[in-house]
């Protein structure tokens, strides 16, 4: 693929971001103003047409003409801005003056350090282009969460002899060795410019941490660098003898090994095989997150994986529910929604609809209107593999208890009582909100 930072490639990135519903006009404030002017001109032209009043001025001043001209001017300004960004980026790489501006940011869940990079257009497009280039060099495209779980479910939903080993790579991003990573990059088909910019990022990481290990979580290209780094281990484990299914989702690994006869494969041997491959990359397993399950008496003990609790029980077949941790997260969001209601001023007339929409959001499904792929998320679409409704019934009971604690007024209590996680899942109830409304709804979770 074309790995350059040309205006054409920057435009390709811009269009891809737009198709994904991501507004990047903040990168170019003058372009945003131009498109806002074009939008206003289009609205004015539409209003004139609807009014039925005949325009009598010069044709060059006709509202439709002005609307087209202002839109064309905005498009041309965008192209000019992308060209200037391309020129600045290429010049800074060639003169070795480019910097990522890597800075430690927030600490996620009190454990994981998140990093940020500069907010200039040059840095944004450099990161995005390197992500595209790295993705093209990977031997396999990483699977999404639902695809990984779907493969696991298909593999274990039978009574054939097997063992399942689920492990976690200990501090995966933090322990990636820069020397080994650079050797992988040297053997790849990266262009000198891309290679130089990745080297810059690793050098800035070394300066910040005083370690020649680790890639910055929170920076877009880090996910692709991690995939490139561990691809060798993935391939070896996927192709190992007797493997029925292997998948890795970031640092979570699941491996299903078939047995010619019950007991012929030892779980510890499979775990040690995984450890051996990781040692080649100077990585290790998290000893607190190692789970081995073996099919016994037509049953397979539960496995918590990517938010799902999965087990196989003979005649009952496959049973898939939500993990306790996932349930606690949803319960916490319910609690925060009701806490926001409890704190709100009684004279705030919007608080009724806000509470109701927050509960609807949690118990139902949402079509992301700002996403041109019309992606769906929610109780069903984020957990489509559920077969056991017990976890959702527990959430329904928690919702009822929490609603009673808040002493909701007549009318609102009845509307909340009609909302249900089980119904939202089974009926696949879909809601749609504007981006502004979504931000208001999610604001309660961040308190």
From TrEMBL:
Keywords: Nucleotidyltransferase, RNA-directed DNA polymerase, Transferase. InterPro entries: DNA/RNA_pol_sf (IPR043502), GrpII_Intron_Splice-Mob/Def (IPR051083), RT_dom (IPR000477). GO terms for molecular function: RNA-directed DNA polymerase activity. The keyword Protein biosynthesis does not apply. Residues 1-310 form the Reverse transcriptase domain. It comes from the Bacteria. CDD domains: RT_Bac_retron_I. NCBIfam families: Drt3a. PANTHER family: NUCLEAR INTRON MATURASE 1, MITOCHONDRIAL-RELATED (PTHR34047), PROTEIN YKFC (PTHR34047:SF8). This is Reverse transcriptase (RNA-dependent DNA polymerase). The lineage of its organism: Bacteria, Bacillati, Actinomycetota, Actinomycetes, Micrococcales.
């Amino acid at each position: 693929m074309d790995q350059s930072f040309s205006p054409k490639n920057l435009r390709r990135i811009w269009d891809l971001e737009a198709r994904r519903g991501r507004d990047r006009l903040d990168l170019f404030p003058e372009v945003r103003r131009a498109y806002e002017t074009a939008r206003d001109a289009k609205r004015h032209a539409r209003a004139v047409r609807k009014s039925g009043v005949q325009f009598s001025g010069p044709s060059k001043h006709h509202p439709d003409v002005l609307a087209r001209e202002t839109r064309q001017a905005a498009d041309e300004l965008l192209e000019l801005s992308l060209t200037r960004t391309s020129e600045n980026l290429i010049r800074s790489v060639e003169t070795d003056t480019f910097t990522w501006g890597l800075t430690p940011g927030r600490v996620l869940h009190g454990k994981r350090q998140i990093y940020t990079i500069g907010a200039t257009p040059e840095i944004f497009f450099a990161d995005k282009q390197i992500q595209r280039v790295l993705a093209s060099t990977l031997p396999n495209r990483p699977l999404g969460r639902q695809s990984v779980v779907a493969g696991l479910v298909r593999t274990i939903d039978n009574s054939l002899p097997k063992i399942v080993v689920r492990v976690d790579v200990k501090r995966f991003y933090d322990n990636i060795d820069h020397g080994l990573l650079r050797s992988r990059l040297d053997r790849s088909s990266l262009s000198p410019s891309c290679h130089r910019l990745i080297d810059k990022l690793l050098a800035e990481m070394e300066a910040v941490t005083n370690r020649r290990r680790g890639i910055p979580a929170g920076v877009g290209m880090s996910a692709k660098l991690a995939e490139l780094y561990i691809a060798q281990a993935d391939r070896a484990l996927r192709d190992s003898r007797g493997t029925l299914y292997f998948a890795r989702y970031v640092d979570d690994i699941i491996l299903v090994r078939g047995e010619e006869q019950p007991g012929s494969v030892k779980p510890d041997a499979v775990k040690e095989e995984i450890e051996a491959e990781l040692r080649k990359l100077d990585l290790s397993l998290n000893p607190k997150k190692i789970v081995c399950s073996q099919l016994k008496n037509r049953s397979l003990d539960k496995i918590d994986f990517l938010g799902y609790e999965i087990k196989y029980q003979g005649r009952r077949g496959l049973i898939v529910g939500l993990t306790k941790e996932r349930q606690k997260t949803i319960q916490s969001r319910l609690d925060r929604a009701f806490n926001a209601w409890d704190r709100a001023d009684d004279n705030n007339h919007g608080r009724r609809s806000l509470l109701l929409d927050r509960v609807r959001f949690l118990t139902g499904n949402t079509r992301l209107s700002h996403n041109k792929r019309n992606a769906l998320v929610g109780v069903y679409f984020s957990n489509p593999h559920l077969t056991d409704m017990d976890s959702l019934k527990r959430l329904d009971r928690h919702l009822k208890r929490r609603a009673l604690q808040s002493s909701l007024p007549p009318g609102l209590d009845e509307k909340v009582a009609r909302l249900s996680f089980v119904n939202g899942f089974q009926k696949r109830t879909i809601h749609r909100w504007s981006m502004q409304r979504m931000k208001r709804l999610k604001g309660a979770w961040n308190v």
